[in-house]
TrEMBL record:
Family (UniProt): Belongs to the RecC family.
Domain RecC C-terminal residues, every copy: 784-1005
Protein name as it appears in the record: RecBCD enzyme subunit RecC
Further remark: In the RecBCD complex, RecB has a slow 3'-5' helicase, an exonuclease activity and loads RecA onto ssDNA, RecD has a fast 5'-3' helicase activity, while RecC stimulates the ATPase and processivity of the RecB helicase and contributes to recognition of the Chi site.
Signal peptide residues on this chain, from the entry's feature table: none
Function: A helicase/nuclease that prepares dsDNA breaks (DSB) for recombinational DNA repair. Binds to DSBs and unwinds DNA via a highly rapid and processive ATP-dependent bidirectional helicase activity. Unwinds dsDNA until it encounters a Chi (crossover hotspot instigator) sequence from the 3' direction. Cuts ssDNA a few nucleotides 3' to the Chi site. The properties and activities of the enzyme are changed at Chi. The Chi-altered holoenzyme produces a long 3'-ssDNA overhang and facilitates RecA-binding to the ssDNA for homologous DNA recombination and repair.
Classification lineage: Bacteria, Pseudomonadati, Pseudomonadota, Gammaproteobacteria, Chromatiales
UniProt GO molecular function: ATP binding; DNA binding; DNA helicase activity; exodeoxyribonuclease V activity
Length: 1069
C-alpha cells in the first residue's frame, strides 16, 4: 500500500526513512530501492543514511523514469531492457523518416519546417518532435491511445498522429502507455505474480510525478509497500491557493468565480503551484499520511519567514510582530557590478561567517547559481587564488564537460578542422595544448621557437594553393602552410643566402642544428592535421565513425595520468552515440556536421560528479536539489536568469492545453526557490548584478528575488530608516580595492590583503607617490667599468630600462600580440623598412630593384596579386631614387675600426664597422627616430676619437628628412667622456633622459627659445595629447617614476648635456 510522509524538513524525512529502513527485508540480500528525482539528492541521502544507520550499502537510487520501466519489467513479460521510445531513440527513427517522402495533405506545417533540406536542421527537428512525443506519453496518454486507434486527439494534430502511428508500427516493442494498459488489464484479471515485485520501495523528496506514473505506483501498491517521503512547505491544506495575478486573470475570464479564490500566503501562492498540483494528485489516491512538521524555533528573520510559509500565513492574519532588528543578517542581499564582483564579495562574506562562528564548517555551505558555466571561471579565479586571500576549500560541480575539460574542447576543435581555412593562430593554439604537443615530441619550451618560425615564413592560412583556388581565390600558394613548411625544410637542407630562389621557393635558414627535431614535430603535427581531411570529410555509418574518432584520439593525444580519464570519457561518448543509433535501428550514414552536433549535445551535459565532494559546495540551481544547509547562497540572481523559461515549439500540442500535473521549467524554478527558502537553516544569501558596469545604471534582480523583497517589506517592519529590503541590501563598490572596504563604519569589509594594499595606495597623499628606487644603488662591480660600444648604445636607447634589467634583473613582459591569420594587405613599418634596405642595397650593387619582386613575393610579405606589385614598384622606385643620391657618397671600400677609449676609471671598447674614407654612411626610408639619432651620435663621437689618418670624422645619413650630416666634433673626447659619466650615474639611479622629450627640449634651446618653451615642448612629448603618443607610457618609465613628474632641473641638465652638442653638430640638407 501507499504510505505518505509529510515534513517541511528533509532531515526529518530522512529520519523517517531511516526508521523505515531499520525494519529488515525478508531477504537479507535484497537491494533497497529509493527513488530520487536528481542524482545529487541520491548522493546527499546516501551520506545522511550512513550517518544514521552506520552504513548505507546495497541501496540503489534510481530516477523515476528508469524506476517505472524497471518496475514494468518485473511485473510484465516481454519488456525489453531499454525503452525503445526514449526521446533519443525516437529522434533517430524520426530523422530517417523525415528524409523519406511524406504525404502532402495534412503535412503542410511539417513540409514548411523541412524546406531548408539541411541534414542538421532535420535532425534537430526530429529531436523536437521526439521530445513532444515523450511528453505526450507521460502527460497525455489519452492522446496516444486515440492516435493509435486512428482518431484525432486535438485540432491540427494530423501529421503528428500519422507520424506516431508510423513510429509504433515500426517498433516490435511496446511503449510504456501500452505496458501500463496491459498492467491494468492483468491486475483486473488477477494475473499478477507478486513474487516478482520487491518487498519495499521508497520515493524520497519528489516534487512532481506524472499521473500515469502515480497510477502505476497505485497498482503496484496492492502487493508491496510504497513509502513516499514528501517535502511539504506548509502543514495545512493549500492546494487551492492562487496568486493575486492568477486570481485577477480568472476574475476577468468569468463573472465572479475568481473573486472567491483564496490567495493565502503570497509566496506560497506565487511559487508553490507545482508542489500543490503534485500533492493534490497524491491525495486523490487517499494514502495514509504521517505528518512530521517542525516549526523553526529561532527568532531570526529567516526563521520568521519560514514559520509564515509553514503556517501559510495570510496577509490579514499577520500578527503585529516586533520589527526586525538591524543586526539580523539571516537574510542578505548583495548588489554588485559584475559576476566577478559577486564572487569576490561572496568569498569575503563566507570568511566572515567562518570567523564569527567556530562551529560553522565550509561543508555546511551551499552556493547555487542559475548559470554555472558562466560563473565557474570566476569561482575558480577567486576561490582558487592563494595570493592575498585566505583559502576556503571548495568543490565545483555541474559544469558542462566541454567547459570543464580542455581535452574535450580540443577534441571538438580537431573535428571541426577539415574543410576549414587552417588559420595559423587557431592551429598554433591547438599545438599549445600539452596533451597534443607531447604526442609530437614537443614541449612547452619549444613553442616560442616554433611561433617565431611561423611568423618568419609568414604563414597565414590555407593548406596550399589548390585549397585557396577551391574557395574561388586565385591559385596561389603564398602564405600557405605548404609554402611556409617547404621554406623551413629547404632552409635547413640548403642554408646560406636568403636571396636565391630554388624552384620558386625562398629557403629560410631559421632552423639550426638540434632544432631539426622541433621542425620534425611541427611537420608531423601539420601533416596529421591535413590527413584528417579525407578521414573526416566523407559521410560514414555511426559504427565507422567510432573507428575514425578513436583513430583521431590515438593520432593526436598523449594523455598524462590525470588526462587519461578525460580521454576515456571521449571514447565513451563516441561509443554511446553509435550504440544509441544502433538501438534505434538507424542504418544510414552520418555527416561530420551532424556527428559534431550530436557529440556537443552529449558533452554539454553537466558532469555533476563532484557534488558534495568536500568544502563549500558550488552547484547549479537545478530542480529537485533544494538540500538543507546551514548557509545557502544564491548568486547570479539576475533579471531574466531565474526563473528560466523554455519556449515551446510551435507544434507542441500541450503548450496551450495545460492540465494539472503538467510541468514547465518556469514552474520548476519557482518551486525550487520556495524549497530553498525553507531549506536554509541559519542564513540565506542572495547576490545579483545590480548596476551596469559601464554606466552604473540600475538593473533589477530576478523576479523571484523582487517578490521576496516585496513580501519582506509588506510583512515586517524594521527599527531602521527605510524599508526592510533596503536594510538587508548591501551595495558594493565597483572595485574590490575601494577604500570603503578598509575603513570603519561603512558596513563593508574585506579580508584580501592585496586589495588592502591597493586601497592604501589610493588613500596615499596625491602627487607624492613613492619612487620605485628611493635612493641611489651602490656602485657596480669593477667589471662594469669596461663598457662595450654596443652596450653603451643599448644603455642610451632607454637608460631606465637598462638599469632595471641589467642591474636589478627586472624585465617587464610586453603583452604578445596575437598571430596574424589574414593575408597581408600592406607592409608594416619594420617590413617596409627592411624591404627598402634590401632594395637600396641591390641598387647600390648595380642591380635592378624591380627584379627583386619574385624573391620578395616568395618571402611572403607582399600583398597578393596586382596590389602587391603596385606596392612593390612604388617602393622600388623610391629605392632607385635613394640609391642615385647615395651612389656618389657610397664608398668603394669600407673598413673596421677598433675602439679602446679611456676616460678616468672607465674604458670603452668595441668596433666601428662599415667605415670608409669619407666616414660613416647610413640610410633609412623614414625620418631617423630620436633614439636612433642618439645611437648615431655615439658612433659619430667614437669615429671622431678613434678615426685613423685618411678617414674623415664625418657621419652622413640619408633619411626621410633629407641628408643628415654630423660634422667633426673638436671636443669629441670630452663629449664621449660625458656620456660615459652619465652611463655610470645611470647604473646607480634612474637617469632622466627620454629621447623624444629631451630632443624637443634641446631643439628649443638650439633655436634660442626660452627654457619654458623647451619644457612645454618636452611635456607635450612626455604626456602626449594631440601631439601623439605619450613617451611616459613606456612601462619602465611608469615603474621608475609613478607620478610622471620628472621633467625637472635634472632632466633639463641631462637633456642639454646630451642633445645640444648633437644638434649643434648636425646639418640637414
Amino acid at each position: 500500500m501507499l504510505h505518505l510522509y509529510h515534513s517541511n524538513r528533509l532531515e526529518q524525512l530522512t529520519d523517517l526513512l531511516a526508521d523505515t529502513l531499520r525494519q529488515p527485508l525478508a531477504d537479507p540480500l535484497a537491494t533497497e530501492t529509493i527513488v530520487v528525482q536528481h542524482p545529487g539528492m541520491g548522493r546527499w541521502l546516501s551520506l545522511q543514511l550512513a550517518r544514521r544507520l552506520s552504513v548505507c550499502a546495497n541501496v540503489t537510487f534510481p530516477l523515476p523514469a528508469g524506476f517505472i520501466w524497471q518496475l514494468l519489467r518485473q511485473l510484465l513479460d516481454d519488456v525489453p531492457e531499454v525503452d525503445g521510445f526514449k526521446p533519443e531513440l525516437m529522434q533517430w527513427w524520426l530523422f530517417e523518416r523525415l528524409a523519406q517522402s511524406l504525404p502532402t495533405e495534412g503535412f503542410e506545417p511539417l513540409h514548411r519546417y523541412l524546406e531548408s533540406d539541411d541534414e542538421l536542421s532535420r535532425f534537430q527537428l526530429a529531436g523536437e518532435i521526439a521530445n513532444c512525443f515523450d511528453q505526450y506519453l507521460v502527460y497525455r496518454p489519452d492522446w496516444i491511445t486515440r492516435w493509435q486507434q486512428g482518431r484525432s486527439a486535438m485540432p491540427d494534430d494530423h501529421w503528428q498522429a500519422a507520424l506516431w502511428r508510423d513510429l509504433v508500427a515500426s517498433q516490435s516493442a511496446e511503449h510504456w502507455v501500452d505496458l501500463q494498459q496491459r498492467l491494468a488489464r492483468m491486475v483486473e484479471h488477477g494475473s499478477i505474480d507478486p513474487q516478482r515485485l520487491p518487498e519495499r520501495i521508497s520515493l524520497f523528496a519528489l516534487n512532481a510525478l506524472s499521473p500515469g506514473y502515480l497510477e502505476i505506483l497505485q497498482l503496484a501498491g496492492r502487493w508491496l509497500d510504497i513509502h513516499l517521503f514528501i517535502l511539504n512547505p506548509t502543514e495545512g491544506y493549500w492546494m487551492d491557493l492562487v496568486s493575486e495575478e492568477e486570481r485577477g486573470r480568472r476574475a476577468l475570464e468569468s463573472t465572479d468565480q475568481g473573486l472567491y479564490l483564496e490567495v493565502g500566503n503570497p509566496l506560497l501562492a506565487s511559487m508553490g503551484g507545482q508542489g500543490s498540483d503534485f500533492l493534490a494528485s497524491l491525495l486523490n489516491y487517499d494514502p495514509g499520511a504521517t505528518e512530521a512538521f517542525i516549526e523553526p524555533s529561532g527568532e531570526s528573520l529567516l526563521h520568521r519567514l519560514q514559520r509564515d510559509i509553514l503556517h501559510a500565513a495570510e496577509m490579514d492574519e499577520w500578527p503585529d510582530d516586533a520589527p526586525v532588528h538591524g543586526e539580523d543578517r539571516s537574510l542578505q542581499f548583495h548588489l554588485c557590478h559584475s559576476p566577478m564582483r559577486e564572487v569576490e564579495v561572496l568569498h569575503d562574506q563566507l570568511l566572515a561567517l567562518l570567523a564569527d562562528d567556530e562551529t560553522l564548517q565550509p561543508s555546511d555551505i551551499l552556493v547555487m547559481t542559475p548559470d554555472m558555466d558562466s560563473y565557474a571561471p570566476y569561482i575558480e579565479a577567486v576561490f582558487g587564488e592563494s595570493v592575498g586571500r585566505t583559502h576556503i576549500p571548495y568543490t565545483l560541480s555541474d559544469r558542462s564537460q566541454i567547459a570543464e575539460t580542455p581535452v574535450v574542447s580540443l577534441f571538438m576543435q580537431l573535428l571541426a578542422q577539415p574543410g576549414g581555412r587552417y588559420p595559423v593562430d587557431e592551429i598554433f593554439a591547438l599545438l599549445e595544448q600539452p596533451i597534443l604537443h607531447r604526442r609530437f615530441g614537443l614541449t612547452a619550451a619549444d613553442l616560442p621557437r616554433i611561433r617565431q618560425w611561423l611568423e618568419t615564413v609568414v604563414i597565414r592560412w590555407g593548406r596550399d594553393g589548390s585549397e585557396r583556388a577551391a574557395l574561388g581565390l586565385p591559385l596561389c600558394g603564398q602564405n600557405s602552410w605548404q609554402q611556409g613548411l617547404d621554406r623551413l625544410l629547404l632552409g635547413y637542407a640548403l642554408p646560406g643566402d636568403d636571396e636565391q630562389l630554388f624552384q620558386d621557393l625562398l629557403p629560410c635558414d631559421a632552423v639550426e642544428g638540434s632544432d631539426a627535431q622541433l621542425l620534425a614535430g611541427l611537420y608531423s603535427f601539420v601533416t596529421a592535421l591535413f590527413e584528417l581531411e579525407p578521414l573526416l570529410r566523407e559521410d560514414a555509418s555511426p559504427a565507422d565513425w567510432v573507428v575514425r574518432l578513436n583513430s583521431l584520439i590515438d593520432r593526436f593525444f598523449e594523455p598524462d595520468e590525470a588526462e587519461s580519464r578525460l580521454v576515456q570519457l571521449l571514447r565513451s561518448s563516441v561509443a554511446r552515440l553509435a550504440e544509441t543509433a544502433a538501438l534505434a535501428g538507424y542504418s544510414g550514414m552520418l555527416s561530420r556536421d551532424l556527428l559534431i552536433a550530436q557529440l556537443q549535445d552529449q558533452l554539454a551535459a553537466p558532469s555533476g560528479g563532484r557534488f558534495l565532494g568536500g568544502g563549500v559546495s558550488f552547484c547549479a540551481l537545478t530542480p529537485m536539489r533544494a538540500l538543507p544547509f546551514r548557509v545557502i547562497c544564491m548568486i547570479g540572481m539576475n533579471d531574466g536568469s531565474f526563473p528560466r523559461e523554455r519556449r515551446p515549439v510551435g507544434f507542441d500540442l500541450m503548450a496551450g492545453n495545460r492540465r494539472q500535473g503538467d510541468r514547465s521549467r518556469r514552474a520548476d524554478d519557482r518551486y525550487l526557490f520556495l524549497e530553498t527558502l525553507i531549506s536554509a537553516r541559519d542564513l540565506l544569501y542572495f547576490s545579483y548584478v545590480a548596476r551596469d558596469i559601464r554606466d552604473n545604471t540600475p538593473l533589477p534582480p530576478s523576479v523571484l528575488v523582487s517578490e521576496l523583497m516585496d513580501y519582506l517589506d509588506d510583512r515586517y517592519g524594521t527599527d531602521q530608516p527605510g524599508s526592510l529590503s533596503q536594510e538587508l541590501s548591501v551595495c558594493h563598490p565597483l572595485q574590490p580595492f575601494n577604500p570603503r572596504y578598509f575603513v570603519p563604519d561603512t558596513g563593508l569589509f574585506s579580508f584580501d590583503t592585496a586589495n588592502c594594499q591597493g586601497a592604501k595606495a589610493l588613500l596615499a597623499p596625491t602627487g607624492q607617490p613613492g619612487r620605485f628606487i628611493r635612493q641611489p644603488l651602490g656602485e657596480p662591480e669593477e667589471q662594469w667599468r669596461q663598457v662595450e660600444l654596443t652596450q653603451l648604445i643599448r644603455f642610451y636607447d632607454n637608460p631606465v630600462r637598462y638599469l632595471l634589467s641589467a642591474r636589478l634583473g627586472i624585465t617587464i613582459a610586453y603583452e604578445q600580440a596575437g598571430m596574424e591569420s589574414r593575408d597581408p594587405f600592406e607592409l608594416d613599418y619594420f617590413q617596409r623598412s627592411d624591404l627598402f634596405q634590401r632594395l637600396v642595397q641591390r641598387a647600390l650593387q648595380g642591380g635592378d630593384p624591380a627584379q627583386q619582386l619574385s624573391v620578395e613575393r616568395a618571402r611572403g610579405i607582399l600583398p597578393h596579386g596586382t596590389h602587391g606589385e603596385v606596392h612593390f614598384e612604388r617602393l622600388a622606385e623610391r629605392a632607385r631614387q635613394w640609391a642615385d643620391q647615395l651612389q656618389p657618397l657610397y664608398p668603394a671600400e669600407t673598413r673596421v675600426i677598433s675602439v679602446d677609449f679611456h676616460h678616468q676609471a672607465l674604458r670603452l671598447v668595441g668596433r666601428l664597422e662599415q667605415v670608409s674614407a669619407d666616414g660613416l654612411l647610413g640610410y633609412s626610408l623614414e625620418k631617423i627616430p630620436d633614439r636612433q639619432l642618439l645611437a648615431l651620435w655615439i658612433r659619430h663621437l667614437v669615429l671622431n676619437v678613434a678615426a685613423p689618418e685618411g678617414v674623415a670624422p664625418t657621419t652622413r645619413w640619408l633619411g626621410g628628412e633629407g641628408l643628415v650630416t654630423l660634422h667633426p666634433v673638436v671636443d669629441a673626447e670630452a663629449r664621449l667622456g660625458e656620456l660615459l659619466d652619465l652611463y655610470w650615474q645611470g647604473l646607480q639611479w634612474p637617469l632622466p633622459l627620454f629621447a623624444r622629450s629631451a630632443r624637443a627640449y634641446a631643439n628649443a634651446l638650439a633655436e634660442d627659445k626660452p627654457r619654458e618653451t623647451g619644457l612645454k615642448r618636452a611635456r607635450d612629448r612626455w604626456f602626449g595629447g594631440y601631439q601623439g603618443y605619450a613617451e611616459y607610457d613606456n612601462p619602465y618609465y611608469r615603474l621608475a617614476f609613478p607620478d610622471g613628474e620628472v621633467l625637472d632641473e635634472r632632466f633639463e641638465a641631462v637633456s642639454e648635456q646630451v642633445f645640444l652638442p648633437l644638434l649643434l653638430a648636425m646639418e640637414v640638407s
